[in-house]
Amino acid sequence: MSDDWTTERMRRIFDEVKNWGRWGEEDEMGALNLITGEKCAEAARTVVSGETVSCARELAVVPSPENPNPALHMMLRAGDDCLVPGVNFETTGDFVGVAFHGMATSHIDALCHVFVDGLMYNGFSKGEVKSTGARRGSIMCARDGIVSRGVLLDVPRMQGVSWLEPGTSITIEDLERTEAAQDVRVGEGDILLVGTGRDARREEYGPWSPGEVGLAGLHPECIAWLRDREVAVLGSDGVSDVLPSMGIPDWFMPIHQCALVALGVHLLDNLRLDRLAEACARSGRWAFQFTVAPLRVNMATGSPVNPIAVL
Amino acid sequence: MSDDWTTERMRRIFDEVKNWGRWGEEDEMGALNLITGEKCAEAARTVVSGETVSCARELAVVPSPENPNPALHMMLRAGDDCLVPGVNFETTGDFVGVAFHGMATSHIDALCHVFVDGLMYNGFSKGEVKSTGARRGSIMCARDGIVSRGVLLDVPRMQGVSWLEPGTSITIEDLERTEAAQDVRVGEGDILLVGTGRDARREEYGPWSPGEVGLAGLHPECIAWLRDREVAVLGSDGVSDVLPSMGIPDWFMPIHQCALVALGVHLLDNLRLDRLAEACARSGRWAFQFTVAPLRVNMATGSPVNPIAVL
Amino acid sequence: MSDDWTTERMRRIFDEVKNWGRWGEEDEMGALNLITGEKCAEAARTVVSGETVSCARELAVVPSPENPNPALHMMLRAGDDCLVPGVNFETTGDFVGVAFHGMATSHIDALCHVFVDGLMYNGFSKGEVKSTGARRGSIMCARDGIVSRGVLLDVPRMQGVSWLEPGTSITIEDLERTEAAQDVRVGEGDILLVGTGRDARREEYGPWSPGEVGLAGLHPECIAWLRDREVAVLGSDGVSDVLPSMGIPDWFMPIHQCALVALGVHLLDNLRLDRLAEACARSGRWAFQFTVAPLRVNMATGSPVNPIAVL
Amino acid sequence: MSDDWTTERMRRIFDEVKNWGRWGEEDEMGALNLITGEKCAEAARTVVSGETVSCARELAVVPSPENPNPALHMMLRAGDDCLVPGVNFETTGDFVGVAFHGMATSHIDALCHVFVDGLMYNGFSKGEVKSTGARRGSIMCARDGIVSRGVLLDVPRMQGVSWLEPGTSITIEDLERTEAAQDVRVGEGDILLVGTGRDARREEYGPWSPGEVGLAGLHPECIAWLRDREVAVLGSDGVSDVLPSMGIPDWFMPIHQCALVALGVHLLDNLRLDRLAEACARSGRWAFQFTVAPLRVNMATGSPVNPIAVL
Questions:
Q1: Minimal Cα distance from D93: which residue of B?
Q2: B257 to chain A: which residues are within 8 Å by CB?
Q3: pLDDT 10s per residue in chain A (311 long)?
Q4: Is C39 an 8 Å CB contact of chain D?
Q5: How many helices (H) and strands (E) would you count in chain D?
């Protein structure tokens, strides 16, 4: 990191991009407000072939360096004992459980997932997030789904590589050169997906520890750019932040801190973007209808999701 | 029930509507095959206002007569202790777990959820569903999402009542009169949603036990109709079947047994359809783009979902 | 309830019996301090026949009026798929999960389970119990097990009935008459088990809702008696408190509030005492060695347990 | 491994030590039958000081190389929101969940945990262990607790080392020399605990992967010795077996396979024995009363436990 990136500079950026109050004192939707009905309808009109592509990874039930707290998938009743006693009805069932934050599960972060100085988006206090659930900033603001235009910027493809090395910072220039290469422009209300090639690297080397080895992500200079472009939601095959942390004191994950808290921009972490990139490349179109449907979990800090692109 | 509805008659229907082999011996998608790219693109074109409406209930964490096995939502870290040790980063997190089948959670049934005579859709053996997960017929066939035209048939509205009483059988005539009243026709590849007014009744009386008090659902005569209309997916605010069971021996839940096993039609149970009905009534349109995005849980018998209608 | 039982009177009792500071300002063991090595050794000497009797109910995985949040027991691998891939090793496994507080699971309450005016035993603040776990008053104070003399007072047997009706208050006189009938005297460091016949009643009528129908328990006048007798731990087949609550404002569960908070007496709830009563009656001895071995869960508010009496 | 240890030799040992039928065709207790009331009473008489020592590790909620599937401990209600709505009652609660088998949780293996050639102890079929629970060989045979004389053999102490290196095989000679050094003799109905110094090594180097780095355990020649001595239960700070496996084809974990299946000897895995060893050394006595109280989980393959030694 350049020495220019100080705590003070981050604080200045944080203050400058803040959307607090922009949509009212009680607002909990943040930049989702940018997805108007018109924007959503416009997104539907981008559909051409009707091909659908999931941007989620399989639920991460297998422990690995990137998955220290595996999700639970347990059968309750299988074919060996499927007969419901009393009636001649044969059925099976299972249980799914997950602590979805972290580096392995495709999930959406609610705005209450991160605080800066004890405050979340729009100035609500951390005290609103109790041991019994979040009274403010929960994922329920997205309960009716997030449907807008998605734009995938596949940075490694633009650079002619298979993946960005862990720890790589993606700059504004990288984003704009990728826009140019893909002939697309990120605009107001868009869901921006930034590909770093994480899936390709994992396929080659197996999973690694993001904390120790790192992940490619956005340089904090991109925060102002996200604000300028009026992005509604930001997603990545990583976690949008660069890891290991750039080490700016008090700004361990500047993208998380500024996007969620200052901008009110929800984050999609640990997506799988390789299949989408391939479909986009095939079709020559990098914008598409994109749907995120969080589970309606009252007072939750986010949700596991399976975001769907329709091309 | 009329005495005409015998085990033998059900068996005959089951055999007549069977889609086994129709899309190949190895097929696990069933009637999802009816949702072609073209159908999906056509569904996107139904979008006018861009209003999105969730058809899921809140995750059912509170025990009730309809929810004997409540879902788990537990905070892992709240605002009272949000500082990650070592770095000055403030974060919160939680855990979500659910045995989603039953009568309380909005979920999709995978084709392996039910067997008839030990066989699931396309003739795969119940032995394929093991204590460690389903090798065949899992929800992963819908991993790229289900996006098609949704059609809501709001039967109580057509009848001028707020809800159908528990135990009511919806007939073909009911469905077709509702089509006529709403000026819509269910067709090939559609996701059919049948409203019974369950939410309105619960709002009035509180939750009840579907097993004891009952639910309105489709009369088994509708099975052939579902096949004729080439419905891709069937959903309801109940569980599509009438409860208490009509009592045809060996056919405890004939819609579940015939839709999942014979037709290969996935089921959406315990939806919330009152908000969608209101939006449809307001807009005068009962067809819309409909997206179901199951969690990508390998070898699962279904998934909790938050289906989204876009009008 | 007599009108004599006012908030002020309860407060006076609470203050009078308080053990705060008795074993030091930092003490978190409370009345477990009364179980000295000598006491424990003496308890071992009560063993005669070597018969062991569990005082736990089966883990309550089945929903019922007394069990609105059932425990989870799920197989991970059964006989249908037991071969560990790679080696010819056949194994099975499962998962157990439980929110053990409530009215269905045999469990021990840690001292941090209840506060009065925001304080737990020994004056520690409720703020010590965080969303990430209890820093003070956790069950880890009993991590080396609780082994002492147990005394069962089988109140309905003394009264010549099969059970006490829900809502019955057990008085000091009841306790002492039972002592006399059983020729036993509760003393310093003892684990006192009070039987109310709940199991017999459940066997007769099936489970009921303790909140609505009630449970027999100790009248708050017994609190001073528990202090006089220097009881170390208190257990019951109910929850020691009378339900429905006697309705003293601010003292919803006076036994829980005074035992855990004032006395530092751990509570054992929802035990199964019928088998033990039978064994005691058979042997003519109502005192025995009693072992409670909480799971070593760091920062937990208690633990599911299977307490064992050795006669 | 010596080449003498062939599949055939293991099979011969397995057949020679088999206790099948010894306690009846329907028996599910296995060697627990050796713990008679008399034996249990005798164990109580070994108590001198009344010191209690837990032999369990803390519930392993933190991921590590030995703990790829961490246990769950989640607060349901903490001090920040402890007031039960409606009544002025302040309470906290939590949830505990664990897949207890593996290399991190102190647990007991039920006899149904392992099969040889599809059969468990006493010849019951693997088919008895269904996706819905174990019909035979479950931990419920120990529902009234296991209370007997415990004997700790601290092998590294006898050898003058802090721990045995991972992969070390403990021989009959090692066991008998330790007996001699400690002046104790393992006999009928005893619970044998074999210390390998795993805790000391972990304290020094941190946790390691037992699968990759290994664990010290009993050489398969000890199986006949366990039978000769009529051991009732076998425990270890490791998993009793040597890891990595000695590599005898079809006998991946010969101690597990012969103890559980042939002998009907329950196993206690991942105990913490360092504190007990210290207490024994201090008191000069290596035999003590030992209590294992499995949770009463119907149809379970074992249970997390906190075994308690009383000296």
A1: B74
A2: 89
A3: 456 899 999 999 999 999 999 999 999 999 999 999 999 999 999 999 999 999 999 999 999 999 999 999 999 999 999 998 788 899 999 999 999 999 999 999 999 999 999 999 999 999 999 999 999 999 999 999 999 999 999 999 999 999 999 999 999 999 999 999 999 999 999 999 999 999 999 999 999 999 999 999 999 999 999 999 999 999 999 999 999 999 999 999 999 999 999 999 999 999 999 999 999 999 999 999 999 999 999 999 999 999 999 99
A4: yes
A5: 8, 18
- CA angle at residue C18 from C16 to C22, to 5 degrees? 125
**Rounded distance, CA B237 to CA D94, Å?**
33
Please compute Rg for chain C using Cα positions.
Answer: 20
Q: How far apart are CA C76 and CA C93, in angstroms?
A: 5
Alpha-carbon span C73 to C61, nearest angstrom: 7
Give A124-152 as a DSSP string.
-BGGGEETTEESSS-GGGGTT-EEEEEEE
Cβ–Cβ of C50/D61 closer than 8 Å?
Answer: no
Q: Tokens 């011996």 appear where?
A: B25
- In 3D space, the residue among C148, C145, C144 whose CA is nearest the CA of residue C38 turns out to be C148
Q: H or E element: which one contains B18?
A: none
Handedness of CA A285, A288, A292, A293 (dihedral sign): negative
Mutate: best of B33, B46, B49, B52, partner A, most A CBs <10 A = B52
How many C-D residue pairs are in contact by the CB < 8 A criterion? Answer: 297
Alpha helices in chain C (DSSP H): 7-17, 37-44, 155-159, 172-182, 198-205, 222-229, 254-256, 274-283
Neighbours of chain D (3+ CB pairs under 8 A): A, B, C
Q: What is the largest CA-CA distance in chain B?
A: 72
Contact B222, B234 (CB under 8 A): no
Please judge whether B68 and C63 are an interchain contact, meaning their C-beta atoms are less than 8 angstroms apart: yes
- Cα distance from C90 to chain D (closest Cα, Å)? 5
Nearest by CB to residue C47, choosing from D44, D91, D115, is D44
CB of C91 within 8 Å of a chain B CB? The answer is no
What residue has token string 């913490």?
A: D272
Find the helix or strand (DSSP H, E) in which B154 lies: strand B146-154
Q: Residues of C numbered 110-169 whose beta carbons fall under 8 angstroms of chain B's beta carbons: which are they? A: 127, 130-132
Q: List all chains that touch chain A, counting a touch as 3 or more CB pairs closer than 8 Å.
A: B, C, D
* A residues 248-287 closer than 8 Å to B (CB): 249-250, 252-253, 257
Helix, strand, coil percentages, rounded to 5, for chain C: 30, 25, 45
In angstroms, the separation between the Cα of residue C217 and the nearest Cα of chain A is 29
Q: What is the pTM of this model?
A: 0.97
Residues with Cβ within 8 Å of residue B208, at least 6 apart in sequence: B65, B66, B166, B202
Which has the closest alpha carbon to D261: D16, D19, D13? Answer: D19
Give me the torsion for CA of B238, B241, B247, B251, rounded to 10°. -140
**CA atoms of B25 and C271, how far apart (whole Å):** 55
Binding-face residues of D in 48-87 toward B, CB within 8 A: 72, 74-76, 78-80
